[in-house]
Amino acid sequence: MCSSGVCYQISTPQLPWKHRITLRFATLLYNTSLRSDLTVNRRLLNFIDPKIPSNHDSTHSVSSSDLIVDTSRDLFLRIFTPTPTAALDESLPLLPIIFYFHGGGFVFGSADATSTDMAARRFAKKLCAVVISVNYRLAPEFRFPCQCDDGFDPLKFIDEMDDDSLLERVDLSRCFILGESAGGNLGHHVAVRASEYEFKRVKIIGFIASQPFFGGKERTESENRLCKQLPLTLDMTDWFWRAFLPAGEDRDHATANVNGPNGRDISGLENFPATLIFAGGLDLLIDRQKCYYERLKRMGKDVKLVVFSNAVHGYFGFADLPEYSLMIKEMRDFIAKN
């Protein structure tokens, strides 16, 4: 046990070679796409992680379809629905909804990127839930608060939908937010806004933050110790914040440093959902994630922290790792409990 939650000690201290090679190669390509003038080589990024269409036919027991929210900002939802099987019969209770926000430092990724599509599809199958993957705008072309607006508006869109045919098997009173890395940061701010909004049907009852991306001007011990740890280095996080935050703002901006002097006090938000946080012992962000856990606890929130002692940032991208299976088990238990 860790002093700040549940700690899993995995017997294998290092990633398998194939994953280490993948991470090293991917990190090299991603770093190459980040230019010193705070622009991004999108063509290279699209080569690394190409976009794929939705698939109405069942793939890995999950079908997908796209739903347009706002064409002017390319805001769309990719909806993943588990197909009925012997284990998931149409006569069973309605499925929960998971609003899913991909990671990528607010700079990489999209709902139709291959990696995001695969991740969301796995979640839909393994968690027996309808996963709604949100295609939010990216920095540096679009800075804060664009991402937060794009994250929250789909909740209102689903709440106000007249055509329920796409969501006929879901329970709108059992909605969860799931965010990975930058998506975990975004998920926090969407959860805060949702706590203050009066929905007609949608009810957010849980927030799952997997290695949420938080920052701050003062370096933490883990940031200094793990500053060169792949796949997320300190130089990369600094680049992401400069690209994402409003011009002239630093890492103590309330959006980046939710635990800092400008971070919002949410102790009065009675509807802030129960929260499950995942952290990795080899992730330079772990100290900030632990501080986030402690802050929510002090504010009287229902929160649990799970630490995988040997996990690097982005372990959730490797479904064959033992940490991934344990993460899915924790998520299932969390969803069943709420």
From TrEMBL:
Residues 98-316 form the Alpha/beta hydrolase fold-3 domain. InterPro entries: AB_hydrolase_3 (IPR013094), AB_hydrolase_fold (IPR029058), Carboxylest/Gibb_receptor (IPR050466), Lipase_GDXG_HIS_AS (IPR002168). It comes from the Eukaryota. Keywords: Hydrolase. One of its GO terms (molecular function) is carboxylic ester hydrolase activity. One of its GO terms (biological process) is pollen tube growth. PROSITE patterns: LIPASE_GDXG_HIS. It holds the Pfam family Abhydrolase_3. PANTHER family: ALPHA_BETA HYDROLASE FOLD-3 DOMAIN-CONTAINING PROTEIN (PTHR23024:SF24), ARYLACETAMIDE DEACETYLASE (PTHR23024). Belongs to the 'GDXG' lipolytic enzyme family. This is Carboxylesterase 18. It comes from Cucumis melo var. makuwa.
